[in-house]
Amino acid sequence: VYGPSSTPSHPLATAPVSPPPFSVDGFVKEFLHELNTNQGVALSRSSINDQYLALASTVKNYLMARWLETGRKTRESQAKTVGYLSAEYLLGRQLGNALLATDLGDIAQRGLELCGLDLATLRAQEVEPGLGNGGLGRLAACFIDSLATMNVPCIGYGIRYEYGIFRQTFVDGRQVEQPDTWLALGSPWEFPHPEASVTVHFGGHTEKYTDAAGTERTRWVPEWNVLGVPYNYMVPGYLNGRVNTLRLWSAQATQAFDLQIFNSGDYADAVRAQTFAENISKVLYPEDSTPQGKELRLQQQYFFVACSLRDFIDNELEEGFDLHRLPERIHFQLNDTHPVIAVPELMRILVDDHGFDWDEAWEVTQQCFAYTCHTLLPEALEIWSTELLGRLLPRHLEIIYQINDEFLARVREAFPGDELRARRMSIIAEYPSRGVRMAYLATVAGTKVNGVAELHSQLLRDKVLPDFSELYPDKFTNVTNGVTPRRFVRMANPKLSELITDAIGSGWVTDLERLRELEPYADDPEFREQFRAAKAWNKSRLTDLLAQRDGIELPDGHLLDVMVKRLHEYKRQSLKLLHIVSLYEQVHSGAIAAADLTPRTVVFGAKAAPGYKMAKDTIHLINKVAAIVNADPVLEGRLKVAFPANYNVTLAEKLIPAADLSEQISLAGMEASGTGNMKFALNGALTIGTDDGANVEIRELVGDKHFFLFGMSEPEVAQLGAQGYHPGSYYESNPRLKAALDLIWSGHFSDGDRYLFDSVVTNLVHNDRFMVLADFDSYLATQAKVEEKYADVDAWTRSAVLNVARSGFFSSDRSMRDYLKRIWHTQPVI
Ligand code: CR1
After folding, report:
1. Which residues, including other chains, have CB under 8 Å from residue 384's CB and lie 6 or more apart?
2. Residues with a known catalytic role
3. CA-wise closest residue to 134 among 164, 155, 161
4. Helices assigned H by DSSP within 259-351
5. Top CATH class, 81-90+132-381+442-480+818-824
6. For the chain, which has fewer Cβ within 10 Å, the N-terminal or C-terminal residue?
7. How high is the pLDDT of residue 270?
8. Could you tell me if the ipTM is greater than 0.95?
């Protein structure tokens, strides 16, 4: 029950909520009030953390009226809402974005100054919520930002992990993971609502019964349950008065937590039961692009999806809403396969809880979901063993079997006699063991299936799900990823933003295609000069940050060559590493003079999944090579390798604007899209990249002359694979490559230990699944072209300006428009 129990008589009680005055005085008053009443301290006795928390509350207070108003408007309009279901949201820090969305930056700065405080210091106090691994989680955060900015009703649903992505440290060059205690100093951006908790059931069995009308029905008799407590976060639109909601679920033990093994009546056991329940939202699985297949992971997936569906149906719809019309009010977007268990869950709700017959329920369910696939690696498509699924969610497994039976009947009808095809397409895999192919389930159930860049969507149709695209040609579509220009240009790159706004006005922040108007400025020497000045400012900001954060010294005047992304073999950090080792080897063998090298600093940022040995060995090797290169007097001032630990959104915001060269060097056909690639181009870095993922579209848009393409194309990769790839032949026939690999093999970077990195080199020479050696030559040749161009300052800057001017397509606002048009068929609410 919501609202007062009798009609309010005080005029204020029915007036709309009003924000604090939009003035320095108004701000100071609100800030001090928050400091005194929320933190319970006087300014003179306040810690930086107190000040940060009070500042966050103050900014929230400015957003509050908009948030409440957005809720009212959305309910009244009965508009269709986008329900974004994602196991990850890599949000980044909230304060800067909230200041930007409210235009409070200057007021806050001046107000705090008048209180003797420094805004930048308080901003640095914030620990980012790292509730995601990489691109997929950051994409979700960009999408909800865009939807709010575009006035589209959206609820993001996810998990409030108590520990987000681990904090990476290096010990003797090896990655060591530390828990991410992002909640330790308080979490001012969230609003817990324990009273609105939802119970989620697990385990048990199903039974048949006959209802009052004499119909045979099934019910689930679960064995144990947990509570999902919602935590709401504001998702402010940029300067538009809209604030959407992100609702993250935290697991708690129910009072009657009745898991049998914990039922001994023992107090210690009871507490253990509590821990067991709370484990569900305890920690983010740090695997990126490869699933884990662990029971707790499936618990997490069902937990947040069950909470979210219940929440939407019970709380967001008016009482008595006819669920047959559910598709008019919601479109759930499945962010990869992680939330796909929502499909049988909605069927269960409709059939078991609301008495729908099967066909009616399937009709509704099929209209409520759409599925985004984010990968091409076959091993990354989730398959849950039927044994596990049946044990944890017995009713859901039954429902999946029934969906599959009906689906296969359809396949057999469409392709009579093609039994192999039916087996290939079955949602239930029989080999090597029985499991549920979640991507197939999502494809069968969803209105649409999309890939995340043109090439990826094409390969998805032709190679990953060819049978499905034949059966449902209209289901498949593409939406190329995008990034929010608010966070990744306007906020991260204030100098460039100012320069752009001076030239073309401020409209680009919400209409990024307008960057096109910058094109003529590429030929304006004065503009180019200012553009370089902005880049120089970003570099010096990064230099200060890395000195203080990591004790890393960035030399002046170097080409800043940046490769930041998760560590994965398919992304080929090892190719970048071989380039560095080769430069070092060439100088020391006398093949080139150090003085002839273009002064270059290579910056890596990368976390490896804790159980991914090859990735961790690669990190170790990069750090060892860095140590030798950086200590080498011959290379002093010519080549430097920097690997700051714990790359995250906060660091990205400083690193990307400073970069000259963006490394996007995955094997063609492996990177679904990439989104870092877009951020670099938008911030005026030139890309060296393969024809992979969204690189293809970046190159097409910015033009070949302003993009360094290298390596095999996807069809060439496929052909080489088919004819038989032998990395050893590249090693044997390319002296420069052989010398680089031999140098690592010799123990040169491991204090003479020949075995330390043997696995990395052996793998490259004998297996090399991602064809690093095949692309080595082309990569080095193209790096030489990079250097040549970099020597021509004006030509380089001109290309950099054109990269900015021609990358407006990569705004996540455009991605959202594509989803609205091609998938959700819903409208903004003004
Ligand atoms: C892809 O690897 C893509 C992001 C966002 C990643 C990357 O190329 O840009 O998704 N996939 O679409 C992923 O994390 C679980 O899969």
Report:
1. 293, 298, 435, 436, 438
2. 374, 565-566, 571, 675, 679
3. 164
4. 267-278, 295-311, 326-329, 342-348
5. alpha beta
6. N
7. 72
8. yes
